[in-house]
Predict the structure.
Amino acid sequence: MKIECPHCHLSGELNDQEVPLDGRYIDCPRCNTGFHVKKPPTQGWNPNLMSVCPHCHYSTFTDEMFEVCPKCGLQGSVYQEKKRKQEEAEQHKADMERLQRSYRQDDFIKAPSKEPEAALPLVPAPVRYTGWGVMAVAALVAAYGFFGVMNYHGKDLYTQINETALEPVSRGAIFLHHGLFPWVLTLYGCGMLIVASQFVRLQRWALKGLEWGGWAGLAIGAGYEIADFVGWVRRSADSPSLLYDLVGLMTTLFMIALWVALPLALIWWLRHDRITDEFLEP
């Protein structure tokens, strides 16, 4: 008998003797699609006739066939319809299994993977150690300034100073002399922390930002020492000796040198080729 795949329409021949009366389930050798093959009905043949009852297994043990079982009353038409529906259900299940196996599981089950993020550039050792050092110093400066802010009590200072002062001192003057500097140190330290954190990420603007921060630290230190020297002179007698002024001046210059040494060293190092070459555009 001639058969044909319902999917890819591959045709071929099959021996009738290899196909039972109720048909046979085969797979297409080309596309692996499963389908059911039945014998073509002969002339005058009734598909509802049975020689053995599939329910109670009654048989006449002869060539005699019957449409209704004499023992249990099973009708051949009812049995064939039920069998057809069962075969269709099995066929549908098999087709769905083949369809599922043909899917690419990574595309249908797993979520699509995101594109790998670009790897962060490797930070050279000079840049990394410089950034960490600036962040450490900036954290100490910010902590020192914050400690001074927390311990500044303007009302108490105002009372103490005016009790001994020859002339009344305003609250604003007290804040400029005692409360402003801790705030400046706190803000300066926090700003340098932010810039240094971007410096170690090789942000080009952070290189210039650190240099400006060095100049700002130099100005803050020198300005504080000069203001302190002026206040020291004002607190002296009406006609201080030359030695008094000289000692105050030498002390101020020494403290200014200590203040500006670290910022100047930072500015010099930031302009070194080992640092600037790392921030050149590729």
Notes: The beta strands are 2-4, 11-13, 24-27, 34-37.
